[in-house]
Design a protein that fits this description.
alpha+beta, 4 strands, DUF6325 family protein
Length: 143
Amino acid sequence: MTRELGPVDYVVVELPAGASSVDRYVHVELAGLVDNHLVRVLDLLVVSRRADGTVAIAEFEDSDLDELDSLGSSMIELLSLEDVENLAMAISPGGSGLAIVWEYICTASFFSAVASAGGHVTAHGRIPERAIVASLRAARESS
C-alpha cells in the first residue's frame, strides 16, 4: 500500500523583539509533537527580516536549535528561496523567527484508509482561527 500524506501546512513564528534564539519551551513543544507522532517536520528554517526588508535565511543545520536535532531525519527542504521570502513578509522588519513546514501524520492513516477503500479525498482546507472564534462568540451570544 502506498503511504498517503496527511495535510501539510506551514507556520511562521516570530521571535520576541530582541530575542536571538527560540525559547527552550518552544523547542520542547515542537519535539513533543514529533515524538508523539502528531507532526513530521518537513522543513525548518531560521528567518530574519532586516529593517530594509531583505531576508536572511539559516538552514536548520546551521542554527542553534540543538534540542531539535531529532527532527533532521525527516526534513526534505521543501521551501524555495521565493517561498521563504514570501513567508518572511509575516515577520516584522528587523525581526526574526522560524518558518516550519509540517505534515499532520496523525491523520495520514485516515487518508490511507480512504485510499484502501477505493476512495479519495477531494478537498481539505483550513478554517481561520478568527472565523471559529467569531462563530463560537456568536453562538454564545444568541443562546
